[in-house]
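Why do we bother with a discrete structure alphabet at all? Because it lets us treat a fold like text: something you can write down, compare, and reason about line by line. To make this less abstract, here is a complete entry for TIGR03619 family F420-dependent LLM class oxidoreductase. Read it the way you would read a sentence in a foreign language you are learning: slowly, and without expecting to understand everything at once.
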Amino acid sequence: MSAVPVPPSRIGLFFFYTETSAPLRTLARIAEDAGIESIWVPEHSHIPAAGHTQGPLGEMPEKYSRLFDPFQVLATVAAVTERIRLGTGVSLIGHHDPILLAKTLASLDHLSDGRLLLGIGAGWNRGEIENHGVDFSRRWARALEHLAAMKAIWTQEEASFHGEWVHFDRIWSWPKCVQQPHIPVLLGNINPTPMVARHGDGWLPLSLAHPGALPEGIETLRQNAREAGRDPDGLDVTVMCLERTDPATVAEYLDAGASRVVLRAPLSSEERFREYLAAHTNRRAAV
């Protein structure tokens, strides 16, 4: 097994950013100075007040309803950093107008000099999903159609698209993405289903039970890629740890084949944030 702590260049941070968090610009600069590879931001437009109290890890924390807009957070991080990559973990793209979201994301890719990583999902909170007019049972179908429409806008000078939910003819929309052919897309799912290899540039396994489950998932992903005519070596695997994870477990995920591991860092104070990074990067926690 790899020595621990692991190199910070293979660690991302999961930012559940709310109004009670430490100043965002400060946290972003600290993370970049520590050599952290990426910052990832989740998306919830709202949480219904009645019912739906269970989250992916049990009772839903109040902060799910207090999250800042993910694209505003990432734009702020981009403005005060030069190297750190910017990820959505995950963006619920089926809830958005795909024409507007395509412009938002391409603009962010430009303003960050090509640092954006688009993690996408279909959501798990039924009330939130249905409040956006999305059929819960068909949320992935709609998300993937929105993704296809955005790819058309990003890759065609004069884009057209006709699907079940999205229709437009011959539109002009700039900027195009800095990263070509478009922003890398990673699909968030517990299992590496065939749609990950068909539609994505990588897989975001969400809180696997243990690192030992990862090699089998990666082999399934690679087989699905071969069947889809994709290069199995070209797919990113980013493990998202929604629960607290120790450095030894991070090293096991990387040894098992993860491209990076994203950790849920404490954001309540600058001091706690520095201490957490020091524990995972073997760097002194300067205060």
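What the structure line is telling us, in plain words: The longest strand covers residues 85-91. The chain has one domain: 8-281.
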